[in-house]
Request: fold
Amino acid sequence: MVAKPPLVPHYYNEGSTRYILSLPDVYASEGSTIASALGLTKAPDNFEPDEDDVGLSVSEGLRTAKLVRLRISYRDTAGGRTVTKSSRIVCPASKVNTAIAAIKTKTYKGKNITGAGVPRRRRLT
Reply:
């Protein structure tokens, strides 16, 4: 079983409000460059939130329509073959229009992203 990446604080600005999220370390880690296209910034190690910052969980952000799930596709090699894999990521709702186009030139887990869009079916978790 593959270990999940650790959760690290990320933030994004919407108007004058800064929202803080705990996301897996695949948005702005080595080999991934999607955070800038999504409008997310990885918080530094010594990050201290301000009084005005709003903490937001992913489930709460999806429920209140502050976050939207996106699907990305990328090519990977498995067993000597090239296969297309997909992942689900979250994006601030205010950045969805620009993020879908911009994310296609970025990398995810060291692999070039080949497609992006809104998932067609809802996964119940």
